[in-house]
Specification:
The chain is about 75% helix and about 0% strand. The chain is mainly α. α9 packs across α10, α10 packs antiparallel against α11 and α11 packs across α17.
Length: about 350
């Protein structure tokens, strides 16, 4: 009998291509839908944003953010983080933590000096500077660019946990005399309840119950999509509350804010590239920090990203007015989208 011809895999159907496209681009699509819906019909989001319990806790915003960090804890693979703790990675990892939590927030001093109108845009950019690195987007971009995903994951988990402690005093320093933030202890406790406690619960459930671990591994994509939907749900409420104020703004200040949000990410990328990888012409090293290429890619990408969801969460605790929250949150939303599109371009390049 003649040998069987090699089986040729059938090309994916249109539906399969569409499904994969939606999954790959779910976060920017969800944010764009949230923005469009908030501008077109703000009533439902505005109503949900006004629901409060215990005096001033906006339950419809706090619970979705807690769910996001619960899912992050459920999906955290400790073994992957341990791979990043090799001695050769120590200098780059230390720099990554310092850059994300201490160095990049200094750009907030500059944003406060820029006379944007409304001034909430300047304050929103400043809060965005202080936020830790992105939760899932940065790791995905690191993998797409050929970087070390274990290092990216370690920086994600570590900085988001430590940001609970670093953000309150940094915001107190930056916004002193500009915006009256909550007392440091109060903001720290609220962030710990919203971010740290759900994350620890998720991680403990993963380690303690094999059934939970099996469920998480079997439903990784649906859980990630649900987590992203929770983020978009919070963004939708915040922007819905500020819809009328947003539409009152002239095009110039809005475009300036958008340009600064994009420029912020480009400045971070250039700065971190110079510190981590730059070498003078002729091969002479200028900076001692030059890790292997994969680790360098991970550190540059992660240290150049900021988390809009964490920034929006902090903004919800800083001010009570839902309209003001929307104006403050818009730079973070624009910045998050810019990070995704620029990162996708770098991955393709």
């Amino acid at each position: 009998m003649p040998p069987k011809a090699a089986e040729v895999a059938e090309p994916p159907s249109r539906w399969e291509k569409f499904r994969l496209f939606i999954i790959k681009n779910f976060l920017p699509l969800a944010f764009l839908i949230a923005l469009t819906w908030a501008l077109a019909w703000p009533v439902p989001g505005r109503y949900l944003a006004e629901i409060t319990v215990l005096g001033n806790v906006k339950i419809m915003q706090v619970v979705p953010m807690a769910v996001v960090f619960l899912i992050t804890g459920l999906q955290l693979d400790t073994a992957a983080m341990k791979r990043a703790l090799a001695l050769r990675n120590a200098p780059s990892i230390v720099y990554g933590f310092l850059a994300i939590l201490l160095i990049t927030p200094c750009l907030g001093f500059l944003f406060l000096e820029i006379p944007l109108r409304p001034y909430e845009f300047s304050i929103g950019l400043t809060v965005f500077c202080v936020a830790p690195t992105t939760l899932g987007v940065g790791v995905a971009l690191t993998v797409a660019c050929g970087g070390n995903d274990a290092v990216a994951l370690l920086l994600t988990v570590g900085t988001n946990a430590l940001a609970v402690v670093t953000m309150p005093p940094e915001l107190r320093l930056l916004l002193h005399g500009v915006q009256d933030p909550n007392p440091i202890t109060d903001l720290l406790i609220k962030l710990a309840i919203t971010v740290l406690v759900p994350f620890i619960i998720g991680k403990c459930l993963r380690e303690a119950f094999p059934a939970v671990l099996h469920f998480v591994k079997s439903n990784r994509v649906p859980l990630s999509l649900f987590s992203t939907s929770c983020l978009a749900f919070v963004v939708w409420q915040t922007l819905s509350s500020a819809r009328d104020l947003l539409l009152e703004q002239s095009a110039g200040p809005v475009l300036a804010m958008m340009g600064l949000s994009v420029g912020m990410h480009l400045v971070y990328l250039l700065f971190n590239y110079l510190v981590v990888w730059w070498v003078q012409e002729g091969g002479e090293r200028v900076f001692l920090l030059r890790p292997p290429l994969k680790e360098a890619v991970a550190v540059v990408i992660m240290a150049s990203q900021k988390s809009a969801p964490v920034a929006v969460t902090v903004i919800a605790y800083l001010v009570k007015s839902t309209q003001q929250q929307g104006l403050l949150a818009l730079p973070a939303v624009v910045g998050q989208l810019a990070q995704i599109f620029i990162g996708s371009g770098l991955a393709a390049w």
